[in-house]
Amino acid sequence: MERIDAIVRDPLFQECLAKTAEIEKEREFCKHDLQHFVDVARITYILILESGALWSFIRDNDLKGTREAKEVVYAAGILHDIGRWRQYETGEDHSAVGARYAGEIMERAGFTPNEIRIVTRAILEHREHGDQMTLLGELLHRADNLSRACHECSAQKKCYKFPTMETGNLVLIY
To answer: Locate the HD domain: which residues (predicted)?
Structure first.
């Protein structure tokens, strides 16, 4: 997955990661770090495999094959919260900022315009569940929630998301 490695090494990706880390240094809630991004990528890929939808995902999105599909899924997971620091600083929706940054980063990493479109749409969709979501947007949304270890979080009582998180009562789902 050389293109995923290129994303993680990209100067803009590294800058966004560092800015988010600095802002979240004292944050008591979940962090938006590389480990979270990788967890979301892996869980999203597991979900697409378990759903039996990998081949339809490839066909419906005009992807070449399983390798490209895996890289698209991983790119979405790795990049889904890359705009988080901007939301902290300006209030701008991190998914909109992240989709813009993702397009730039993915282009430099060698992704096609079609692959970039698939990922940026999923990033835009990942915050809230809706009827018109793409498969990748839906799975990214769920993986984002499943990636959190809410059952052991010390900030449970203060977290507005805790009551709706699948990981609130179960130690391990994925």
So the answer is: 33-149
Number of domains in the chain: 1
Residue 158 lies in a domain: no
Sign of CA dihedral 106, 113, 139, 129: positive
Q: Is 101 left (phi over 0), alpha (psi -120 to 50) or beta?
A: alpha
Q: With respect to residue 172, please indicate whether it lies within any of the assigned structural domains.
A: no
Beta-sheet strands, E only, within 32-111: none
For residue 174, being part of any structural domain is answered with no
- Answer whether residue 168 is part of any domain: no
**CATH number of the domain bearing residue 84:** 1.10.3210
- Reported as a single tens digit per residue, the pLDDT across 104-137 is 999 999 999 999 999 999 999 988 767 789 999 9
Whole-angstrom distance, CA of residue 147 vs CA of residue 41 = 9
Q: What is the separation, in whole angstroms, between the first and last Cα of the chain?
A: 22
Residue with tokens 């993680």: 8
